[in-house]
Design brief:
The structure holds 2 protein chains of 2 kinds. By secondary structure, chain A is α+β, with helices and mostly antiparallel strands. Chain A is built from 8 helices and 20 strands. In chain A, β11 and β12 form a beta hairpin. Classes of the chains: A alpha+beta, B mainly alpha.
């Protein structure tokens, strides 16, 4: 470890972690072998549908669950069998789990009191933290007297005040309404930059993960399907599952020959691929036009089945000759050109680099 | 009409209270101030001295009742809390089975159950007789007719009323809150003391109320298990009414007991009221 400090150090490492439990006499694997390396100061998301093992994975990092196999390391130290109260990570719980019988102040001071921090320091740090989360003046309130957003910030303060090496957040914004959720996303990101602590964020909301994360592990059925930055996850999904789970995407499949996939009365450019392939195209990368486009483009003819005006953009559902349906988003910019109507015959086109090709295994 | 609806809905309840609580209480209050005997009849003489005589004559039994009731309540708390805790947190899918088992004894008459305890604890009954025949206990050893037997009987009879409210309070504690405490460096013990215990105190509060009052006033356990030396105030009231037919003394004693219990409860609620308990526990 000579380069320590020069390269990013690991905050959290999972090595072949498996979690099995018994359900009606049968062994079920909630997590089937996850290996992750989360860097210090990183905003890392575990993203996936419910039941994919993301929460179990986080609970193993926190220490509430013991892995059946594998190793958990915090800052290089093996903590696989260390109980949660002796791990230097703190958690923000789904639905917050604030202590209902304590004031805001006592909630936030709980961890420091347990660690026998001197009174004077507790006073200072709790006060500072309540300022950071904008709850100054509400110290004496009980959790139930606060709004959802305020409770959320108490939960955050209660964890952050201990200056943990990593903060674990379990769907922390799930209970908030959309507007507040968006505001809290930015707020969380700001706080994370300010305190410089590693955040591990569990969510099933792909837009939330894309907005905030440095890196995302997309989980499905107890395994990590893809581990990459938001842009790469969105634009170059590693599997059909990831493509389907992240955003809206179109999927075409067939047999390619010489880098071209003939399908639905048109052609899709898949340079360098041959044989069985599936192609993912994001709806906003597709152009819609009345005439067949010129140039080296993927182009498919179809009929407009549905037009939905959505304010900043319009969503078209276009049916291809073979019955497949393609979704297209078109920005409603000031120079918006084509406005196709229901029933119109149109051409869909996109550049070769916007086709994300997976060879079928 | 619509504005009257809530009052009309409450009417049966108020009628019930009026007919079965206020009227008998008023009648008893009146009797407690009368003098006379059952043959010549009782006359209202506003004889407040009935109270003085009753209290003076039976202060031993009154104090003994409060002590026995308190001992039984403490015993119920010590036995009941772990049971409630276990059912609430470790009961899993069988919680309702355990609760049913807890209530099963109520399908047998209260007096009958107490008499059965009399058999069990008899000087040469199943338990003591066996132990004596093995030479593990001296021949003269006995449990019946001791304070221990009475307190044990009281504890047994009202234990479920202690367990149920505590169970309800514990059941409502979100396990995530306990995890949160552990995540914030609390050991299991500290998480219990700082979070679970304070959150269950409203249940403890209710359990104590629901057991201390009936246990203190109970005549059956003292009569069946206590022998002559452990008479409680409930026995005295019963005897004065049914044997001596001294209605004024019995009424005065009943009121005295009620007053003592009410004062005790208000003091208890004042000192240990739910809010205060929570405040104290949060420190």
């Amino acid at each position: 470890m000579a380069e320590q400090g020069l390269i990013e150090r690991s905050a959290i490492e999972l090595e072949g972690v498996v979690k099995e439990y018994l359900s009606h006499g049968e062994v079920v694997q909630a997590v089937k072998g996850v290996t992750l390396d989360i860097a210090e100061g990183e905003f890392f998301s575990l993203l996936g549908p419910s039941g994919c093992g993301k929460t179990t994975t986080m609970r193993m990092i926190a220490g509430f669950e013991e892995p059946s196999k594998g190793v958990v390391r915090l800052h290089g130290q093996d903590v696989t069998n260390v109980p949660p109260n002796r791990r230097d990570v703190n958690m923000v719980f789904q639905s917050y789990a604030l202590f209902p019988h304590m004031s805001v102040w006592d909630n936030v001071a709980f961890g420091l009191k347990q660690k026998k921090t001197p009174q004077e320091e507790i006073r200072r740090r709790v006060g500072e933290m309540l300022e950071i989360v904008d709850l100054g003046g509400r110290e004496k309130r009980r959790p139930r007297e606060l709004s959802g957003g305020q409770q959320q910030r108490v939960a955050l303060a209660r964890a952050l005040v201990n200056r943990p090496r990593a903060l674990l957040l379990d769907e922390p914004l799930g209970a908030l309404d959309l507007k507040l959720r968006q505001a809290m996303q930015l707020e969380l990101k700001r706080i994370q930059r300010e305190v410089g602590i590693t955040f591990v964020y569990v969510t099933h909301d792909q837009s939330e993960a894309l907005t905030m994360s440095d890196r995302i592990a997309v989980m499905n059925d107890g395994l990590v399907e893809q581990l990459a930055g938001p842009r790469e996850i969105y634009e170059r999904p590693a599997s059909t599952f990831v493509a389907g789970f992240i955003g809206t995407s179109n999927l075409l499949s067939g047999t390619a020959a010489g880098g071209v996939l003939e399908t639905g009365g048109g052609r899709v450019l898949v340079p360098g691929h041959d044989g069985e392939v599936s192609v993912t195209i994001r709806p906003e990368k597709i152009r819609i036009s009345a005439d067949k486009p010129d140039g080296e483009l993927s182009a498919l003819p179809g009929t407009v089945a549905e037009v939905v005006y959505l304010g900043t953009y319009t969503s078209y559902a276009v049916t291809l000759a073979d019955g497949a349906e393609i979704t297209v988003f078109q920005q409603n910019a000031q120079d918006a050109t084509t406005t196709a109507e229901r029933g119109d015959s149109v051409w869909l086109s996109w550049q070769a680099r916007h086709s994300y090709v997976m060879e079928s295994r | 009409m619509r504005r009257l609806t809530p009052y009309l809905l409450a009417l049966p309840g108020w009628m019930w209270l009026a007919i079965f609580l206020v009227v008998p209480l008023a009648a008893m209050a009146s009797v407690s101030l009368q003098t006379g005997n059952v043959i010549d009849g009782f006359v209202m003489t506003f004889s407040v001295s009935n109270y003085g005589d009753a209290i003076g004559g039976y202060s031993t039994q009154l104090v003994r009742s409060l002590v026995y009731g308190a001992c039984a309540t403490v015993a119920m708390l010590v036995i009941g809390y772990p049971v409630a805790y276990w059912i609430a947190f470790k009961g899993g899918s069988r919680k309702s089975v355990y609760l049913f088992l807890l209530l099963l004894p109520f399908f047998v008459s209260f007096v009958l159950r107490t008499i059965s305890w009399g058999f069990l604890l008899a000087d040469d009954g199943v338990l003591l007789g066996t132990l004596k025949s093995w030479g593990l206990l001296p021949a003269g050893f006995h449990v019946l007719a001791t304070a221990f037997a009475v307190v044990a009987g009281l504890t047994y009879n009202w234990l479920p009323f202690m367990i149920l409210p505590i169970y309800v309070a514990l059941e409502r504690v979100d396990p995530r809150v306990v995890e949160a405490a552990q995540d914030l460096y609390a050991t299991r013990g500290a998480a219990f003391r700082k979070v679970v215990l304070p959150l269950s105190l409203p249940g403890v509060f209710a359990g104590v109320l629901m057991t201390f009052v009936p246990a203190t006033a109970d005549p059956v356990n003292a009569q069946v298990l206590g022998g002559t030396g452990n008479t409680m105030i409930g026995n005295i009231i019963q005897t004065e009414y049914l044997v001596n037919n001294d209605y004024p003394t019995a009424s005065a004693l009943s009121f005295t007991l009620m007053a003592v219990l009410l004062v005790g409860i208000f003091a208890y609620a004042r000192v240990l009221g739910t809010e205060n308990v929570l405040e104290a526990a949060a420190r």
